[in-house]
Here is the input.
Amino acid sequence: MKEFKVTPIRNGTVIDHIDVGMSLKVLRIIGVRGDVNSTVSVLIHVPSKKGAWKDIVKIEDRELDPKELDKVALISPDATINIIRDYNVAEKFVVEVPERVKGIMRCSNPSCITNKNEPVEPEFAVETKKPLALRCTYCDRLTTDIAENIV
Amino acid sequence: MSGSLKGSDIVSIRDFSREQIEQILNVADKMVPVAKGEEKSTELEGRVLGSLFYEPSTRTRLSFEAAMTRLGGRTLGFDEPKGSSVAKGETLADTIRMVDAYSDVIVLRHPQEGAARLAGHFAEKPVINAGDGAGQHPTQTLLDLFTIRNEKGGIDGNHVVIVGDLKYGRTVHSLSEALSMFGAKLTFVAPPTLQMPKEHIKHIESKGLKPKISNSLDEVIGDADVLYVTRIQKERFPDPAEYRKVAGAFTINRTMLREAKKDMIVMHPLPRMNEINPDVDGTDHARYFVQAFNGVPVRMALLSMVLGGME
Ligand SMILES: Nc1ncnc2c1ncn2[C@@H]1O[C@H](COP(=O)(O)OP(=O)(O)OP(=O)(O)O)[C@@H](O)[C@H]1O
Ligand SMILES: [Mg+2]
Ligand SMILES: [Zn+2]
Here is the structure.
């Protein structure tokens, strides 16, 4: 049998410990499509040290901006970001769910004014972290299906 | 929010502390003679209320207009968006900025939830939420609290039974949360499919109360101090026969009230359909018309306070 190996990256970002099944959403969030000209590897459903399953995304020549980090945190609060420089892990941190979430998610309430073509960014306060629930500062409703509503 | 309400938006009852609510109700008390036309006031003379009703609501709109007029102010605006720039697709944000320039205070009724909060961001003048879709309707809650306080001599310790569509009814969500802040005892009576959403029950429990859930009015009516009745809408029931059955079981009539305490009061946000039989109107229990009148002094208090008159 032929052995498959993920090519190591020289410089870039490894997003590790992604909640299993969320890696394709992570790709969408960080805007990785067919037109990138660097290596992107996605590992879906791999065993993690803690005995559970996880996904991993590795992107060459790319670092995430704060908005993207917030979005990753919303759909995968335990994800770790490993900045790779010259093949080594130069920096490592766990993403952090922001206290207030602004402009990166839409409200799940279809009757919310923020879904009606008004010049405002939807804004939420974190109600609970586990499971993650966000309360819209406009309509007061809770959004729990976070991944579906990330923009 | 704390201290004076001058310049504040009135968007959600959740924004207010018990002390602030009491302060509003105290000012409303002082407004009663003016609201009745027994005394005259020029407190808001020269002030303009921008009244934007994107949805018809005769009662709320007229009581705001009465409140402003009784205080010597004037009202401009529309009572349906048809024919206005709104109908041409202008955003709420733009309409608000325009009205903000023409008025001293804005009252907004809008079908979308969160509309008042948005208006508050775009307006410099205070915005009062007169109902935003299935969301908040704080002035209704305040006038309900005012009615209970005045008719029962206080709110604490009263057993308030709320009956009707508790799932979708915005009135009962804000009211029950506010009542729990005042330490009233609560019972929710509804058919199981229209019971109070868990989220609201949790919120009430977080105030240290344990609301009772029931689907039988007969079981609880004898112990009620306040019976707050709301409408059950036909549209909630796919089967008309089921609707008739449910609506019938939650209709108040004179016979049922024989089981009630002598000083129990019946309230309803109005308009009513068949939930309260007209034979209740003549009893000592009926308070829904007083309640409707109370909308005027309560709204006078709010207008006066956000415009920096009374403290
Ligand atoms: N040059 C590289 N190219 C591709 N992936 C890399 C590279 N260096 C490290 N990684 C990956 O980055 C992740 C973090 O690497 P690290 O060596 O810190 O592993 P770890 O000690 O298991 O980390 P953790 O405790 O966060 O799970 C691992 O998934 C690893 O496979
Ligand atoms: Mg590891
Ligand atoms: Zn919303």
About this structure: The first strand of chain B starts at residue 48 and ends at 53. Residues 5 and 305 of chain B are 6 Å apart (CA to CA).
